[in-house]
Amino acid sequence: MVQLIKVNGLSKSFGKEQVLKDISFGIEEGKIYGLIGHNGAGKTTILNSILGLIDYEGEISVLGQSPYDKRYQLMEDIAFISDVASLPRFLKVNQLIKMMSDIHPKYNEEKTHEYLQNSNIKLQTKIKSLSKGMLAQLHLALVMSIDAKILVLDEPTLGLDIINRKNFFKQLIDDYMHDGRTIVITTHQVDEIEFLLSDIMFVRAGELILNCPMEEISERYAQLLTNEENVSAARELKPIYEDKQFGQTMMMFDKVDAEKLAQYGQVSIPNISDLFVALMQQ
Question: 200 forms bridges with which residues in the sheet?
């Protein structure tokens, strides 16, 4: 598989505060990566480094080039949404579409009109009059109309209600993911993007603590729900996390055989949000 982004030993400090600590990973073509972490964990700093918006220590290659040195050229092949409320509110929708045609060589105006034809967004409407849901829909339509190899989304649905968040991601998958395109999404709303991810990365306090394909989660991690009489014996298998739930104990295990665990209670595969809680508080 072709690696579009290669990150090796990425570190970043702001003054005396080190916000990224020796992070390394690769982003492969045609996949959807979730970069998950609490606010302040370093997710946005990682993206800003990849996009060439800040300097950094370490090595980054994006489409074979340094993003800091070749940012202008790379922006032809990378689309970026940082905040759906960042569109110029003084323009009308059709004026913004025309402006995109003028400034981006790989923007296709016809595609934007196709994406918007089944929406409630009118071309003569001022952007400041659009609801948050419409802003998200417009922003996504604009970005999907760019023939980019990589789409980077930094908390793209922040501030949207649950219906608009789900619609945003549904449109993203239905209309964008084809021809080997790659998406990197940062968020702390883990549950809502689990269904669309091919790979997951957890960032905690500036360190990458998990980086694996989604299918490896079920192979590697197990969750045990056990009663008080079995807790001591189950602890001998060295859980990475435990918590009390309705009079029982939930334990999370890494690389422990499920058959061994089954003798102590109910075994299941953890969902991403449970795994996120476990690893963030480990």
Answer: 34, 212
Domain 3-213 sits in CATH 3.40.50.300:
yes
pLDDT per residue over 182-238, tens digit each? 999 988 778 878 888 999 999 999 999 999 999 999 999 999 999 999 999 999 999
Residue 188 carries which side chain, given as an amino acid letter?
H
Residue 180 has pLDDT above 80, yes or no: no
**What order of strands is seen across the sheet that includes strand 248-254?**
241-245, 248-254, 221-226, 265-268
pTM over 0.85: yes
Query: Strand 78-81's sheet: what is its strand order?
Result: 78-81, 150-154, 182-187, 32-36, 199-204, 207-213
Q: How far apart are CA 227 and CA 218, in angstroms?
A: 23
| Residue reference for tokens 């074979």 | 64
112 token code pair: 């934007």
Kindly list the distances between the CA atom of residue 135 and the CA atoms of 91, 141, 166, 171, in Å, as whole numbers in the listed order: 13, 10, 14, 14
Measured from the Cβ of residue 90, the count of other Cβ atoms closer than 10 Å reads 10
Cα–Cα distances in angstroms (integers) from residue 203 to residues 200, 217, 222, in the given order: 10, 16, 21
Residue 238 backbone phi and psi in degrees, to 5: 60, 70
- Domain residue spans in the chain? 3-213, 217-280
- Give CA–CA dist 213/272, Å, rounded: 12
